[in-house]
């Protein structure tokens, strides 16, 4: 029976037919976890593992224990709150073991490995899309500070024409008529005068 922390683990178990209470601390290292699994499974005959779903710290240990044939319960910490004011790591892991022995713990749903991999990929993709949208908005705001209303002309600031305008501005060419002449698409030609007069204003001069 195992309780997870940030950098340490504490465990307790029971030998067949009687209870064995054991607590210790050690670094959260892969080799030590493997050695402990062999000791629990072979030496003590442990069949169940209970752990709190603390952040993401349970995931690597879950991946290590999963192939060992243990019955693993990843439990929501809110469901096993200890008495307020008396919560310590030692009391906490002993309390979890007590609940597990009594059959009072309900494990959270943990998808299989293929589903976990798919979730990681989809979440990563969503994060990349959000970051890309944030950078688009940031680009628009930067040029608006420089009196270039790109959003009033271009629906996509990463399009070919808009990128050409941005490149010339970065190179120091801020002439409104020249920038407007880069807008060769027929829809942009229709609003050529509007682009020249209001969208590509020269930078403000101070002093």
Automatic annotation (TrEMBL):
GO terms for biological process: DNA transposition. It holds the Pfam family DEDD_Tnp_IS110. Residues 43-141 form the Transposase IS110-like N-terminal domain. This is Transposase IS116/IS110/IS902 family protein. It comes from gut metagenome. One of its GO terms (molecular function) is transposase activity.
């Amino acid at each position: 029976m195992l309780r997870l922390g940030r950098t340490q683990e504490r465990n307790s178990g029971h030998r067949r037919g009687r209870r064995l209470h054991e607590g210790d601390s050690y670094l959260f290292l892969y080799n030590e976890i493997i050695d402990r699994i062999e000791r629990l499974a072979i030496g003590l005959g442990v069949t169940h593992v209970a752990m709190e779903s603390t952040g993401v710290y349970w995931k690597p240990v879950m991946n290590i224990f999963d192939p060992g044939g243990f019955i693993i319960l990843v439990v929501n910490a809110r469901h096993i709150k200890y008495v307020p004011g008396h919560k310590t790591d030692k009391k906490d892991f002993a309390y979890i073991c007590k609940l597990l022995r009594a059959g009072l713990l309900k494990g959270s749903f943990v998808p299989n490995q293929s589903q976990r991999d798919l979730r990681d990929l989809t979440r990563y993709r969503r994060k990349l899309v959000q970051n890309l949208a944030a950078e688009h908005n940031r680009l628009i705001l930067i040029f608006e500070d420089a009196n270039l209303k790109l959003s009033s002309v271009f629906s996509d600031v990463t399009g070919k024409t808009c990128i050409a305008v941005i490149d010339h501005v970065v190179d120091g060419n801020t002439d409104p008529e020249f920038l407007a002449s880069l807008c060769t698409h027929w829809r942009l030609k229709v609003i050529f005068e509007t682009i020249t007069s209001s969208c590509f204003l020269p930078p403000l001069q101070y002093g």
